[in-house]
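WARN no homologs supplied; continuing
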Amino acid sequence: LAWVVVLAALGLFALEESGALVGLVQRELALRLGPLGARVHVERVALRWFEPGLVLEGVVLEAAGGETGRTAKELVRLRSVHVSLASLVDARLPLELVEIRGGRLLLGAELLADAESLATLAKAQAATGGTAPTIAVADLEVALEEEDGRVLELGRAALLARPLESVGLDVRGEIVPSL
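OK structure emitted
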């Protein structure tokens, strides 16, 4: 039994260090988020060895329909996302906690359309008995993209969103304005 545990740990270590874990996470995001998931990119993934969890670094949501040869506009860039899972073995079990530390959010028409898509997916998940995780956000820069393309820096946000017993989320937080 000890050799099985050692071999499993070595396999997970190799998966993490080789970068193959990034590909697995990218595929899972594409599966769970549909077309939106294809626009999410993750730079690095690390296992949380003493809990069922992952840390995703450099998570980016790009704008849809970027021009060929040009760098896509980043709607969201998250420095670090710690995901606590109910189980590493059964992917059908829900996420328990998502902690986001640092990053940038560009509020605008494109991001709002993406948020509506996510809300539709969340409603479908809730209809099948799934629950939303608790989401904690700290040190997130927030900017507003105006219709003419100008960007207005709003400030830094921190929030906590918890699922309610009934349908919905209890969201609390603050934004410290940029001066």
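The longest helix spans residues 109-127.
OK
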